[in-house]
Design a protein that fits this description.
Blueprint: H1 2-30, H2 46-58, H3 62-93, H4 95-108, H5 113-123, H6 127-152, H7 156-164, H8 169-207, H9 212-221, H10 225-253, H11 255-262
Helix pairs in contact: 2-10, 3-4, 3-6, 3-8, 3-9, 5-6, 5-8, 6-8, 8-9, 8-10, 9-10
């Protein structure tokens, strides 16, 4: 019973937080609040945004935008997940691989997604592939670094114990390294999902013809401010939902870690 009451209290607090933000938005935009550094003079009200969202739902534009963005995100993200986890395991387990691959990756890591756009357009024959590549680069590094951190954080005594029992490299990787590094890998996958949405929107603003980022940028160019907020909220909801999905799948894949936390 206490567990249910605690869960209800948490959800009530979270709902109250969202409602408070919505109320502030309504008051600030309807009263055209001007606080000097920040002004809400031209910010659309929640009701105007709701009307714009409803108009988008009733139109034939929403589905093409959603399918375009989702396909680009998940194709780039899944590619980054495979490459990031594989490289992370190799770098975390081999000093030679770390000295060979990590320095150029560290040079590439701080480059923002928008800086990759001109080169991606030159490298790939279609704008779709270039946008997928930019999404890939955004998701790669959080996954890669968290995988390396997880592998290096595995207790060396567990590895030594497995070796003393006669375990070979594949068995150690499968039975010791992967279970020990899985929580960090799941964290990197969840962060990578969020950054992949950020990078996709940047790419769609410049190279896309369909997609939520393109819809948001097009709304800005024609000064349709309510539609801008609709696009922003769609990006936030899709990014949050996909990150939650990754975390839930990760929790299912690492039940021993969840049980250890609850103990």
């Amino acid at each position: 019973m206490r567990v249910l009451s605690d869960a209800f209290a948490r959800w009530a607090l979270r709902s109250s937080s969202l409602l408070a933000c919505l109320l502030f938005w309504h008051v600030a935009s309807s009263q055209r609040l001007d606080m000097g550094l920040v002004t809400f003079t031209y910010v659309p009200t929640p009701s105007a945004v709701f009307d714009a969202a409803w108009a988008l739902i009733e139109s034939n534009e929403l589905l093409p935008h959603l399918t375009s963005s989702l396909s680009r995100v998940f194709l780039g993200y899944l590619s980054a997940a495979v490459v990031g986890v594989t490289l992370g395991l190799a770098i975390g387990r081999s000093r030679w691989v770390e000295d060979t691959l990590l320095p150029p990756l560290e040079v590439l890591r701080p480059i923002p997604a928008v800086a990759w756009i001109p080169l991606a357009i030159l490298m790939f024959p279609s704008s779709e592939l270039s946008m997928v590549f930019i999404t890939f680069t955004g998701a790669l590094f959080p996954i890669l670094l968290n995988t390396i951190h997880g592998v290096e954080g595995v207790d060396p005594r567990l590895i030594a114990s497995a070796r003393s029992l006669g375990a070979k490299r594949p068995a150690i990787l499968r039975e010791v390294i992967l279970p020990g590094a899985s929580p960090s890998i799941v964290t990197g996958l969840a962060i990578g999902m969020g950054t992949s949405w950020f990078c996709l929107v940047t790419a769609e603003m410049i190279s896309g013809q369909f997609g939520i980022g393109y819809y948001t940028w097009e709304s800005y160019t024609i000064q349709n401010y309510a539609n801008i907020v609709v696009g922003m909220l769609l990006i936030g909801l899709l990014g949050m939902g996909s990150s939650v999905l990754v975390k839930r799948l990760g929790a299912l894949a690492t039940p021993w870690y969840i049980l250890r936390e609850k103990a």
